[in-house]
Fold this sequence. Notes:
Structural class: alpha/beta
Amino acid sequence: xxxxxxxxxxxxxxxxxxxxxxxxxxxxxxxxxxxxxxxxxxxxxxxxxxxxxxxxxxxxxxxxxxxxxxxxxxxxxxxxxxxxxxxxxxxxxxxxxxxxxxxxxxxxxxxxxxxxxxxxxxxxxxxxxxxxxxxxxxxxxxxxxxxxxxxxxxxxxxxxxxxxxxxxxxxxxxxxxxxxxxxxxxxxxxxxxxxxxxxxxxxxxxxxxxxxxxxxxxxxxxxxxxxxxxxxxxxxxxxxxxxxxxxxxxxxxxxxxxxxxxxxxxxxxxxxxxxxxxxxxxxxxxxxxxxxxxxxxxxxxxxxxxxxxxxxxxxxxxxxxxxxxxxxxxxxxxxxxxxxxxxxxxxxxxxxxxxxxxxxxxxxxxxxxxxxxxxxxxxxxxxxxxxxxxxxxxxxxxxxxxxxxxxxxxxxxxxxxxxxxxxxxxxxxxxxxxxxxxxxxxxxxxxxxxxxxxxxxxxxxxxxxxxxxxxxxxxxxxxxxxxxxxxxxxxxxxxxxxxxxxxxxxxxxxxxxxxxxxxxxxxxxxxxxxxxxxxxxxxxxxxxxxxxxxxxxxxxxxxxxxxxxxxxxxxxxxxxxxxxxxxxxxxxxxxxxxxxxxxxxx
Length: 602
């Protein structure tokens, strides 16, 4: 029994050591450490993964003490190291990490992915060699005896110590956007270090010299960090109009496409009659962050985590062009954009006095109306984000038109198959209220003359589900069906008075390139800075990427291919399973996804 426990501890130690070697291989192309703290952070990443190995090992102790099951830990260790090795190869080739859909594509069509046969042979040999190494470590007495156990235990105790250091450094770096630290994150797979904005301030108070309460800058990094991202491929070439149009962009929180009706939202339905209404419009995500990212960057949402680590280095080409052309940018929102670095990504050049925030949508609208009285000769970019339609839905009592209402808000959390009518009524009341607020916005903008030469874009950050799939899903962020990703899009160009409808698929990613070309006079190819298309020249057939906070998916021909869970289902009805039939579109999406990643295989 003692020998088996000794073998278990010994193998755990060597698995941590081999994991440390893999971490070093992942980081070999990462930015060079600029100072002592980045060096410590790189070593602490070993503690992050080593603690994971240690935790699994502790769970496996009873299993390893039985002669019939003592092989489980060596097999798990082999699988773990093989995953790291395969992911490393994938990352070196494609500059993104392994997921289930890539595995499925490989099994169905590895030649179509451009993988040579000799690479498969080498991979098989590596797997055999690695398995043999682990078996030797586990079984051979020369690889460690009982008297070495104290040293093994001491080495393993360094893992949680490294995790603690990793967490403290990352909490500080993520909050203050210290790119000399956050720049390493994209290189590591399954890497979700701890973040806490409130704790970050305490960390700076405790060690002000080591963790200053000040943001980092791109200049603190070597040029090597830019090796993973090439954005834009070329700076856009633009010729502004002699009378540049303003842009009014309105985003409604959790806006389901089916709710844009004369009964629920009468004012916006009237506005739609003189705008272009895109009937099949997909957000770039099923939650706010990827939805807003695709909207403001024109890029697929998988780029958010890459850009989040270095917001100063990769501002949106759209907002940068607005700044270069002298636009007055103002932000009106009832949602804090400080979380997830959204404010730093979207509005880094906007002075604090031009960012108006309030918990009340009514006050946000009041601030926008007041801004219309400020005389300016510069074209405007106004961004309005209203959140009354986010659960728990808010509206004054006068707007409780749709009844019955739920007895307990959020009661569906107890009963996933609850009658959705009361909950949907509650939601529709909040949209009725939002509609009234936006009527004031559009009416005031019309009377002030702003709309005479303005592009107006009205959409949602994502949609909202009320168990329409019948599978117990509510709210957003849990799947990528139409109920969580299909949101309205209304676009009115300057001088447009007649409405039209577009039935072809449009995306959040299409809005930036359309405004770049039409409003800002940019002639450069869209492919240089966006994954989107021009909204008024949409293709007949296309695919896209969707994201949630922890999940990503491909969308093609009304089929969702969830890259995280390896599920495939019908976008309109999740109960209908779908197979991976359109491999050409998926391969095209994979290539498109890598467009702004340097060093990847096209």
